[in-house]
Amino acid sequence: MDVNGDGNLDILSGSYSRQDRDMAGLFQVLYGTKERTFRKAAVLDGSDGKPLILPAGRGQDDMIDRICTRPFACDLDGDGKLDLVVGNFRGTFGLFKGEGGGKFGPTATWLDANGQAMAVEFHGDPFLVDWDKDGDLDLLSGSAQGGAFLFENVGSKTAPKFGARITLLPAAGHAAGAARFGDAHCTAPASSTRVWAADVDGNGKLDLLVGDSITLQFAAAGVDEATARAKDAEWQKKQQALMGSYPQDGDEAAQQKWQEDYRKLNTEREAFLLEEMTGFVWLLSQK
């Protein structure tokens, strides 16, 4: 995306939080050069010269409105200037109005859908595209719980207005219950989804690319699944006991010993069960 309109592609990113007591996910840009390289990441300021920060106060735990920012640059209102539509930890979406030339208004407003706060179940990650081909931008998003969701623009290109959330792909939720070994059970996107829309198969219809996150479990070499399950049940009891014993009195030496005990416990588990944190990219073709 050419954020500042100089003809060079830039890289725009959000962040979890700045290193400050006042937690807030800043925005950063790696500005592109004519040599097709990128400059060092720079914090994106508003037109007032201060870093762009989402407002707090949407509900309890105000800071989660401001962290885990995920920006998408687009001309939302058709005025020829890039705006920033931003997801966050809570799952709501903020809008920084563009002023042209890579400048943005310093204060964001929250987007509404059908008269209520536009939201997904945490970790909103907006993707704006004309999904229904009516000439305006609609909003797609995944969520921490998984799934893919559409907020249709029921207004116009120059006066956007969003309708109620539509589920394109149900949320899988976070897996619970007995462990499922291997990856044969992975037949659909899991949790922590992020979406992208493109006509992948060239049939004139937008398809969904959905990334997810999942932890796979495998019995260690030489260990059968039944044994791995039995040993893991005992290990879980040890873990729960250790978690309940964390020193709360601020004793640094005791805390360091606890951390070492936790590391050893995790190493002990590797003798019978292995975990792999990974993710997949799924293609959902629109018919």
Helix content bin: 10-25%
Helix- and strand-based class?
Answer: alpha+beta
The low-confidence parts are none
Order of helices and strands: EEEEEEEEEEEEEEEEEHHEE
- CA-based gyration radius: 23 Å
Shape: globular
Brief summary of the model shown:
By secondary structure, the chain is α+β, with helices and mostly antiparallel strands. Helices cover 13% and strands 30% of the residues.
Task: Explain what the structure shows.
- A hairpin with an 8-residue loop joins strand 12 and strand 13.
- Helix content is 13%, strand content 30%.
- The longest helix is centred in the last third of the chain and has 19 residues, at 225-243.
- It is built from 2 helices and 19 strands.
- The protein starts with 10 loop residues before the first strand and ends with a strand.
- It has helices spanning 225-243, 252-269; strands at residues 11-13, 28-30, 42-43, 70-74, 83-87, 93-96, 98-100, 103-104, 109-110, 112-113, 116-117, 127-129, 138-141, 148-153, 162-169, 191-198, 207-219, 273-278, 281-284.
- With 287 residues, the protein is an alpha+beta fold.
- 30% of the residues are buried.
- A 4-stranded antiparallel beta sheet has the order 4-5-6-9, with no helix packed on it. The protein has a 4-stranded antiparallel beta sheet with strand order 12-13-14-15, with no helix packed on it. Strands 16, 17, 18 and 19 form a 4-stranded antiparallel beta sheet that branches.
- Helix 1 packs antiparallel against helix 2.
